[in-house]
Amino acid sequence: MASSLHFPVLCLHGGCLNRDRRTRGATRCSSERQALFGRIAPVYDNLNDLLSLGQHRIWKRMAVSWSGAKMGDCVLDLCCGSGDLAFLLSEIVGPHGRVTGLDFSKEQLSVASSRQRSRAKACYKNIEWVEGNALELPFPGSYFDAITIGYGLRNVVDKPKAMREMCRVVKRGCRICVLDFNKSTQPSTTSFQFSRLMPMLWAVKCLLLVKCCYTRNG
């Protein structure tokens, strides 16, 4: 389960050089993002509070509800970060269900594991933390009853491939629930985002909520 990205480069005719450059660029971009999330791991939850004005906790509960996860299910929280969604999912699936939290940042997973050890509910013991790549999920096809990804899809270097991987490992008829921020199209909200929040966050983009719930039908 490699934590960096590798794409095979097929050298045919004159296109190899461009593909090789794109591959190196994607790998470098992914490594930079991985390093960034490693650095911010200790303050990641506080950053989410600031970015969402505290609303992300409500949105995460909504996302878990939309996922359709139920008691005894096997579920995946992709780009799990410090584990908020994974903990909520474990409460839904119960001690006889299974939750996998996958992230490319071992520092984030360390925070999540520490939080797990400090919590007493029996259901939290059903969570397994996996360091892995959202573009090459280390699971067989049609494996999970539900998948969530919270504030993670925007940080993936190849979003279509990440979605294809999620579709591959989710069972037919089950759901992939995506929760993320997005730039507002409302002038008043955009003005607030950039005139009030941006100075506090330096160069970190302040984005608003996008809710997407996908059901695999085939």
UniProtKB/TrEMBL annotation:
SUPFAM superfamilies: S-adenosyl-L-methionine-dependent methyltransferases. GO terms for biological process: ketone biosynthetic process; methylation. Keywords: Methyltransferase, S-adenosyl-L-methionine, Transferase. PROSITE patterns: SAM_MT_UBIE, UBIE_1. One of its GO terms (molecular function) is methyltransferase activity. This is 2-phytyl-1,4-beta-naphthoquinone methyltransferase, chloroplastic. It comes from Eucalyptus grandis (Flooded gum).
